[in-house]
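PROTEIN DATA CARD
Card holder: DNA-binding FrmR family transcriptional regulator
Chain length: 115
Origin: Blautia caecimuris
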Amino acid sequence: MSETKETHVHIMEDGSVVEHSHGAHGHHHSHAQTKAVLNRLSRAIGHMESIKRMVEDGRDCSEVLIQLSAVKSAINNTGKIILQDHIEHCIVDAVEHGDRDAIRELEKAIDRFIK
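Structure generated from the sequence above:
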């Protein structure tokens, strides 16, 4: 089986650019929680838009920070759902098929997520 690589570029909060590629993992990325994750992300996006309006309207900084904290928590909780779903489906499948690359990619992703 030939391996295809897809390169991803990410711009980090500090402005640094990280580039990495994924090889074909030999498993399909089908997740049970996709709809729930998309709903949570949509709510977080809406919340961020309201925070942006708060800043534009000159609202109190303390109120803005409290709302930012709520969005940060929502994003972290969404990440936990994605991680759990990925482990339960993709990583279990990868382990069963001896795919060490998928496990290494997960380790890298966890390191970035918890920073």
